[in-house]
Amino acid sequence: MTSCTSATIAATYSSRIDSITFPSKSNISIRIKGPRSAQIRSSLSPPVIIKFQNKSYHQVSCDHHQQITKPCHSPQWNLLQRAAAIALDMVEGILVLKETKHQLSRTYDPRVQIAGNFAPVPEQSVKHNLCFSGKIPDCINGVYVRNGANPLYEPIAGHHLFDGDGMLHAVTINGSSVSYACKLTQTKRLVQEKELGRPVFPKAIGELHGHSGIARLVLFYMRGLLGLIDLSHGIGVANAGLVYFNGRLLAMSEDDLPYQVRVKPSGDLQTVRRFDFDEQIHSKMIAHPKRDPVTGELFALSYDVVKKPYLKYFKFSKDGEKSPDVEIPLEMPTMMHDFAITENFVVIPDQQMVFKFQEMIKGGSPVIYDKNKKCRFGILSKEAKDSSEIIWIESPQIFCYHTWNAWEEPESNEIVVIGSCMTPPDSIFNECDENLRSILSEIRLNLKTGKSTCRAIISSLEQVNLEAGMVNRNLLGRKTRYAYLAIAEPWPKVSGIAKVDLITGNVQKFMYGDMRYGGEPFFIPRDLNSKKEDDGYIMAYVHDEKTWKSELQIINAMNMNLEASVKLPSRVPYGFHGTYISSEELAHQV
To answer: Any keyword ATP-binding (predicted)?
Structure first.
């Protein structure tokens, strides 16, 4: 959500960002060392006032009710470690001072990336008996949980929206009783930073670019070697995806293992542990695993940006037993945020967004768009023991950050993939002048001829940016007619929901209204036995930028009319992906 946004800075500055106040009310105050003040205008947010003054690190406290400026615990370091920590902190201070003498790119300027309702909020313990209007459908009895980035500490330099600590927002519905809670996922990274009272882990996108990024990596590993931080339990933020599998709610980002989070009977949230599937997995796992609705199996990928194998495929039985890894041969480390499954295959996109750390030596970002690389999709049997039978089909100039579904059409020997094709591909990570487009597309991969085709599903006259969404998950991997997607306009905000007929291209819209924006729509079928694919409801968080109030809206998927709206006790920032867990599933939670 991010980068190619138009932003006008109505003031200049030359000194370092010294503090950011993360409020739960209607404004975000960013303080920069010095006497001046300025105003930001950005497509990310309404105008935001910046106040320039000195202030120490600001933290939302561990008990969620106070704001404190000291660590939760004092680290137990010896004399040598304390001296080393002071020296490394001094080096980091010089580095930050040097970095912030130059204007930050919009793709990692915190004044753009976490402005307005992208700004973080404090944790909220469960609030019961929420007010709602309309009638909540009887079939919705459970909890809707959505993930998002919510940095606990101020960015001391560059920060990208994707860099924030993971926070879950949960609305529990039990008949006419509705509750809400939001909690940070207690990753190993976050726990250590809370002990130190400051951010010490590098921001993967906001800070790791150019020579300063190399210096930050050196500082990071020096702190690890000296025992100032523990690098052995991952560095992930768990802020992107969510899946409920085998009695566990898993929060994940592709830079680490998942984290298990428990939904308490009260509706509150509790981080349980960094979850390695009972010591079965020791590598990272992408944030979009796929659960087969028929077999109950979970399919996943793991990619490595440093060493071979750069990509591995594996699956879990419905009882959580992992298969052996299948190493997928790739020439270079490639970003694989998402993939797809059909009834019998996994569909693996090998696209043009790659990792080249040598670009940092040249002063650039390690995440780049390689125009010379050929885009292709790999088709592999779900039951594969190795990659010898993978079929690669080239699909020129296609970059799907997300895929919504895929299925087999045996009569034509084709695999059909539904995804949003994004141009320019690197617009989320690198600054560019070209306007971002995200076009819902049908990609056909012919297993017999090895050829591919791609077409826009919606006519050019009705074309809108569509990103974040889903199909009826009970039909995942099988042919579907409808997709429910976020209307990502003005990018990166979401102004409504599009129900798209994948056959005719017809679009039904539900718009949130003036200065009201939401996020990913989540479809819940009314009845598992219903013969109508769209017989169900769509849930989405919506924020009103005029009143600064947030709510959960429930929309009838068949007619796209509002059924009910739950008033939430605090602001819900724009975020990423979510899931719904029924009360029956919660009853078997581990």
So the answer is: no
Please tell me the least confidently modeled range out of 67-81, 334-348, 352-366: 67-81
- Judge contact between 484 and 557, C-beta under 8 A: yes
Q: Is 160 marked as a binding-site residue?
A: no
Q: Edge-to-edge strands of the sheet including 507-511? A: 466-470, 482-487, 496-501, 507-511
Rounded mean pLDDT, 91-119: 83
Q: Binding residue per annotation — 102? A: no
Evaluate the CA torsion angle 551, 557, 561, 563 in order and state its sign: negative
Confidence (pLDDT) at 22: 42
In terms of DSSP H, where are the helices of 107-179? Answer: 110-113
Q: What tokens does 428 get?
A: 């989320």
- Is the model's pLDDT at 183 over the cut of 80? yes
What is the side-by-side order of every strand in the sheet holding 400-409?
400-409, 414-423, 437-446, 452-456
| C-beta atoms surrounding 119 within 10 Å | 27
pLDDT of residue 392: 94
What would the pLDDT profile of 35-59 be if each residue is shown by its tens digit?
Answer: 333 333 333 333 333 332 233 333 3
Cα(420)–Cα(418) distance, integer angstroms: 7
Has 543 been labeled as part of a binding site?
no
Q: Which of 353, 451, 439 is nearest to 404 (CA)?
A: 439
> Could you give the percent of the chain with pLDDT greater than 70?
86
What the block records as the tokens of 455 is: 């077409």
Task: Report whether 577 belongs to an annotated binding site.
Answer: yes
